[in-house]
Amino acid sequence: MAKADRPGPWRRFLALPNDSRTKTIAVAFAVSATCAILVSAATVYLRPIQTANRAAEEQARIESLVRGIPGMSALLERSGGTLSTVVIDLDRGRAAETVTPVTLEAALADPANWTTLGPGEDLAGLGQRPDYAQVFLLRDGEDVSLVLLPISGAGYNGRIDAALALTGDMNTIAGLSITSQSETPGLGARIEEEAWLSDFPGTRTRDDSGTLRFTVARGSAGSVYEVDGITGATRTSNAMTRIIRFWLGPDGYEPFLNAVRRGEF
Amino acid sequence: MAGRPHLLSILTAPLLRENPVTLQILGLCSALAVTTSLATALTMSAALTVVVTLAAGIISVIRRHIPDAIRLIVQIVIIASLVIVIDQVLQAFFYEISRALSVYVALITTNCLVLGRTESFARSNPPIPAMTDALGNGLGYSLILVVIGAVRELFGQGTLLGVGVLPLAEEGGWFTPLGLMLLPPSGFFLLGGLVWAIRSVRTEQAEAAEFGPAAPTEAAE
């Protein structure tokens, strides 16, 4: 482009002494602009792949967490769908705005995030209840097909931790898994046994009017709302009734379950 | 001066004779941090080699137009941008390994080896020799990382690239992993041993003692 006798502006610019102020500023600007474009292009172009990677890792983490709950992985395979996790605000029954699965532990270290339960409310013998809980949702398309709720409470000898799975109607129990317990071996400790736990799937928790009807029966189950009691372990059986009733009740997951039924999740 | 032999010697000199890690003791931080397994060492080596080669090429192309007053910052901006791009690529396509490398990929920016090559060689040589020199230095760095990474993984976990090589005692074999190998100090030990071994064979690399008992003749100055 440049005429032979008069060099173009580009050549004249390149011919400037390197230490002239114009050239210093121009080179600095050109280098920064080129690098900015390079970095932005790489970031924008690769972001979707990176997001997918992070999501896959999060998914793997959740799945390994759920697989750690005995009996739940088989249930998940039967149900199908994608697993996700959410921290819910128990009182409001909604996804917590400020707490994430990562910050949950720190949030629960703060006594302000616990609610003290009065004697009448405290069916599960907990004394106090966290305001946030991490639950797992299994989705089949848009609909929630299964929820996995961590529950806990006082047994006969000590604390019982469990995970309760409810099917998409938020009423039928899909399974129960005991994650830790210290009941009497051979008696109450049989709550861990498959023979007893296998009685839970299909059991209803509420009748058509919405009244909580779930009970661990004394002896054999007499209705669709009952599971068989454990012989010789009445106290543990009753504790399981109270724990499940508490967590399905208004101080437990009821607001959340209602929200799921309304299709808010 | 010109021709292939010259380029070849530029390429091979940094492998052992002027190895950036063992002779110049550059880029140690990352060399120690990422060598707990062979896979991370290889990825880090590849990332650094690519960065140093590209940076040398770019800087060599514009070497006549870099104002002296801002030459370091221009070089660092170019290196940093390349590093960010490489880091993004790793996060996109080698996610597991990029997590294992964590911040060390980003720290290539401050790796003395990279700036050392661009400042001392690329800035005063045409692109082809500059890139050859950078590639050679990258490979020299890689060589050390791979050797240390292989030794640490082999004796720390009994595996190489995640494949079992030595039968572990807990699985019925005879090999008990050396936990120390996975800790940072072992990186120092191995690197020190390597430097000593290379300098024992190539005595010209050994440095004169800087501090020692004063010789009687010097004391009488």
In short:
Helix content of chain A is 35%, strand content 22%. By secondary structure, chain A is an alpha+beta fold. Chain A folds into two domains: 9-56; 69-261, no CATH class.
Structure description:
The complex is a heterodimer of chains A (265) and B (221). Chain A is of the alpha+beta class and 265 residues long. Chain A folds into 2 domains: 9-56; 69-261, no CATH class. Chain A is 35% helix and 22% strand. A 6-stranded antiparallel beta sheet of chain A has the order 2-1-5-6-7-8. In chain A, strands 3-4 form a two-stranded antiparallel ribbon. Chain B has one domain (16-204). Chain B has a two-stranded antiparallel sheet.
Strand order of the largest sheet of chain A: 2-1-5-6-7-8
* Tally of contiguous helical segments of chain A: 7
**Helix fraction of chain B by DSSP (H/I, runs of at least 4):** 55-70%
Gap between N and C termini of chain A, in Å?
64 Å
Assembly annotation? heterodimer
Uncertain spans of chain A: none
- Overall pLDDT level of chain B: 84
Main pleated-sheet profile of chain B = 2 strands, antiparallel
What is the alpha-carbon Rg of chain A in Å? 29 Å
The largest contact between protein chains, plus residue counts on each side, is: A-B, 22 and 22 residues
Ranges of chain B where pLDDT stays below 50 over 5 or more residues in a row are: none
Helices and strands of chain B, in order, run as HHHHHHHEEHH
Q: Over the alpha carbons, how many angstroms does the gyration radius of chain B reach?
A: 20 Å
- Main beta sheet of chain A: 6 strands, antiparallel
Mean pLDDT of chain A: 85
